[in-house]
Specification:
275 residues, mainly alpha, 10 helices, globular, nucleotidyltransferase
Length: 275
C-alpha cells in the first residue's frame, strides 16, 4: 500500500484544507502570543466576537440584530477589561451581558441557551488574555497551547487513521476512544516535555497537563453536542476545513477555563507562570 493511501485524506476529504489553515493560523497566533499586550488582546477580542456571533447564529435562527450585538459586545468587552486587569468589572460585564442575552431570548424560547453561550465564550476568551497578561504569562500560555494543540491534533489523527470504538456517538460519529486516549496521552506528554525544557517540575507539570488534555478533548465533545442539538454541522464557515472559529478553538476554550481555575486554586499556579 502506498504512503498516500495511508494518509487521512480518504477518510477526511478536508484534511488538506485543515492542514493549510493550521499552517497559516498557528504562526500568526504564536507571533501574537509572543507580542502579548494589546496586539494579543485585540486578536483574542476579534476571535471572541466571531465565536459569540457564531453561537447566536447556530443556537437562535430567529435572532434579531440586537442578540448578536449583546453577545459580541459582551465577549469583546470582557476581553478588553481582562487585558487591563479589571477582573471585578470583567465579571460584572459578563453577568450583565448574560442577563441581557437571557431577556432578549426569553420570548423566542429556550432562553437559557443565550446566556450559556455568552458566558462560555466571554469567560474562555478573557481568561486566555488574563493568563498572558500575568507575570510569566508567555510561558504559561505556551504551556497551555502545547497541551491543547497536541491533544487536539493527535486525537484527530488517531481517530482518523486508526478508528476504533465510538467515544460518544450522540456527540459525533467520528470520535473514538482511540482518539481520546491518544489525545490525552500526547497532550500530557507535550506539557511535561515543554516544562522539562524550562526546568520546571515534571510531576507538577503532569498534574496540570493531564486534566488539561482531558478538558481539551472534552471541549471538542461539548461543542459537537451543542451543534447536534442545534442541528448544524459546523458553527460557521470562516476557516476553510474547520468551519467556524468555534469549531477551531473548541478544545482550547474548555482547557483555558480549566487553566484559569487551576491557576487560582493550585499553590504554585499554572505551570510556566513563574517564568
Amino acid at each position: 500500500m502506498s504512503l498516500l493511501a495511508r494518509l487521512p485524506g480518504p477518510r477526511d476529504p478536508v484534511f488538506l484544507r485543515r492542514l493549510a489553515s493550521a499552517l497559516i493560523l498557528a504562526p500568526l497566533a504564536l507571533g501574537l502570543v509572543w507580542l502579548g499586550g494589546y496586539p494579543f488582546a485585540i486578536f483574542v477580542a476579534a476571535f471572541a466576537a466571531a465565536m459569540a456571533w457564531e453561537w447566536v447564529r447556530m443556537s437562535d435562527r430567529d435572532a434579531p440584530p440586537r442578540a448578536f450585538s449583546i453577545a459580541t459586545g459582551t465577549a469583546v468587552g470582557a476581553v478588553l477589561l481582562a487585558a487591563n486587569g479589571e477582573w471585578a468589572w470583567c465579571g460584572a460585564w459578563i453577568l450583565a451581558g448574560a442577563g441581557g442575552a437571557y431577556l432578549d431570548r426569553r420570548r423566542r424560547g429556550r432562553a437559557w441557551e443565550a446566556p450559556l453561550g455568552v458566558i462560555y465564550v466571554a469567560c474562555a476568551a478573557s481568561i486566555l488574555v488574563g493568563l498572558r497578561s500575568a507575570d510569566g504569562g508567555l510561558g504559561a500560555l505556551l504551556f497551555l497551547l502545547a497541551v491543547v494543540w497536541a491533544a487536539d491534533t493527535f486525537a484527530y489523527l488517531a481517530g482518523t487513521w486508526l478508528g476504533g470504538p465510538k467515544l460518544l456517538p450522540a456527540a459525533s460519529p467520528n470520535k473514538t476512544w482511540t482518539g481520546f486516549f491518544a489525545g490525552v496521552g500526547c497532550g500530557a506528554a507535550a506539557g511535561v516535555l515543554v516544562a522539562g525544557g524550562w526546568g520546571l517540575d515534571p510531576a507538577y507539570a503532569l498534574a496540570a497537563a493531564l486534566p488539561a488534555a482531558v478538558m481539551a478533548v472534552a471541549g471538542d465533545l461539548v461543542m459537537s453536542l451543542a451543534k447536534r442539538r442545534f442541528g448544524v454541522k459546523d458553527a460557521g464557515t470562516l476557516i476553510p476545513g474547520h468551519g467556524g472559529v468555534l469549531d477551531r478553538v473548541d478544545a482550547l476554550m474548555l482547557a483555558t477555563v480549566f487553566a484559569g481555575l487551576f491557576s487560582l486554586l493550585a499553590p504554585a499556579g499554572w505551570p510556566g507562570g513563574s517564568m
